[in-house]
Amino acid sequence: MTEPIKTLPLVFEEPRGRGKPPQHLADLTAAERKARLEELGLPGFRARQLSTHYFERLVDDPAQMTDLPAATRDELVAGLLPDLMTALKVQEADKGATRKTLWKLFDGSLVESVLMRYPGRVTMCVSSQAGCGMACPFCATGQGGLQRNMSTAEIVEQVVSGARALARGEVVGGPGRVSNVVFMGMGEPMANYNAVMGAVRRLTDPAPDGLGMSARGITVSTVGLVPRMKQLADEGIPVTLALSLHAPDDELRNELVPINTRFSVAETVEAAWDYARKTRRRVSIEYAMMRGINDQAWRADLLADVLNGYGDWGWVHVNLIPLNPTPGSKWTASDPADEREFVRRLEAKGISTTVRDTRGREIDGACGQLAAVES
Ligand code: SAH
């Protein structure tokens, strides 16, 4: 663990373990990598070469690390670049522009990540936990419960693996780079706060210490763990915050997002506003449109009123997500006419709104569909 461990309220505690994932250079700061090699009786200065291979050249085959002495290469690689996960399956949609990977972690836990290529940008959607403990009834991940938190390096490796595939021209559209990372895969990132912040740091650290991405290209999505949202606002890393609201009233949100019984709509939206105010970053509100459940015109009005209760400088943007089907769910996506009316009402009250172009539904790779099952 590289970040200071803070006392967490009970509900956020890490499930007790089947051991820890192997320690990897992506878990460590540059100084810690050097110290780790020295601890293993290896020369500390090799840490920078290993970091360059991992983050900059995106090399994973030790045979290509020819600047490392042949005699100690295996030891160096075993020390800082242990295998973290194995790709069990890659599924493609949109003629290859969307790729979902099923990963098996060291202890057999399964997670998924999704690469989405758009004209001019590539977004990696990553998991931060194996499973999820938040139990939202419309989300496939929420149905399976939480297996465990992922480590910083396990989170980072999903992005690096996408970066490798792009660099090698394995993704349609030719060689490319990862421009955006969204913590919208499996898990609740704010319930694995320290590892997620470690990953954000590795993604934004300049090469070769990290991937050198812009914090603005990174989105952390949360059900609304208010204390963690406040903590994030004080980190000084201007990531985009997305809040999965899904209902503007406590009665319905208690059902759709059970953590709402602990942090109300008012507290949660206030924390989002606080984030926007402190960072001057516009917050996204995620709202999955469920037919006859949360898509009534009056709820659009109420949502706009709730959001307008705070700043008026365009601090918030609403992202409507047509509900994606999940096994056993009784809910379906809204009628397109209701969706249009919902958008119209939000915009009439000055709230900027988009309907998300959902990718990967046919490979169960869209929002809320990641269940990580071997089949
Ligand atoms: N736990 C975090 C990260 C997951 S992000 C969070 O909830 O924000 C995944 C996004 O997809 C969330 O906004 C989630 O509410 C939404 N989602 C879940 N199930 C969905 C479904 N069946 N259809 C559309 N969106 C869904």
Instruction: Specify the number of helices.
Output: 11
Order of helices and strands: HHHEEEEEHEHEHEHEHHEHEHE
| Portion in helices | 25-40%
The CATH architecture classification of the largest domain is Alpha-Beta Barrel
Domain tally: 2
Task: Measure the end-to-end span.
Answer: 33 Å
Task: Provide a descriptive summary of the structure in words.
The structure is a single chain. This protein has 375 residues and is of the alpha/beta class. The chain is built from eleven helices and twelve strands. The chain folds into two domains: 56 residues, DNA polymerase, domain 1; 290 residues, TIM Barrel (Alpha-Beta Barrel), CATH 3.20.20.70. Helix content is 32%, strand content 19%. The strands form two sheets. A ten-stranded mixed β-sheet has the order 1-2-3-4-7-8-9-10-11-12, covered by helices on one side. Helix 1 packs across helix 2 and helix 5 packs parallel to helix 6. The site of S-adenosyl-L-homocysteine has 18 residues, from strand 8 and strand 10.
